[in-house]
Model the fold of this input.
Amino acid sequence: MYSVNYHRAKSVSEAAKLAGEGDAKYLSGGMTLIPAMKTRLAAPSDLIDLTHIDGLSGITVSGKSVTIAAATTHFDVSKSDALRAVCPAMTDLASHIGDPHVRHRGTIGGSVANNDPAADYPAALVAMDATVVTDRREIAAADFFTGLFETALEDGEMITAVKFTAPEQAGYEKFRNPASRYAMVGVFVAKSGGGVKVAVTGAGDSGVFRSSEIESALSNSFSPSALDGVTVPSDSLMGDMHASPEYRANLVVVMAKRAVAKAVA
Done:
């Protein structure tokens, strides 16, 4: 085991200061970073533990406005009655992330910062026009996710919260990898006064993306039947041992239908 310096930050400002020293990494739930360190895919000189910072976890709901602090666990997102009252699609999404161990340790901030191409939250944030709040600025979700495992975060920049306005109707459905429960295809649909937005995770070769074909169909009629006969192109979708691009293209439409069914139920 190689050596690493462990720091327990007491404030956001202290964590940011520590991040400027050496090759440091922020540690929250550790669901991605710790496995990466075990396999030597990551070898930071310092770990900055964010889990003991006051105010970095919790959910605030005011009317339709929702703010979820970065260190809030998937479990707490899934069990929030206040969040479920205004956006049940978000609590439903969180309840199907990984397994109980992952949900009790993993955090929304860590997931968003890692931007795994099969993660669930990116689809929700993009579809709901969410904002990612950091210790330096606010970034629209549409600008935040820039590619596979890539984001607009600068060196040492820390996510402190995500915020969004709950849509009128929303739903999320994913086709899960049977082993990891990651989304082979996940679709989040959101209808609000500004129209319908549909974001897809687990399928794009550049990460999360919006589907204009599905958005157009649902803008005419927000119902599962509106997607009958709709197709999405497969040329920008990933193919691997689990599914071909063509199979994923079909799954996008199927998951979208199921997501809309949840939204209108």
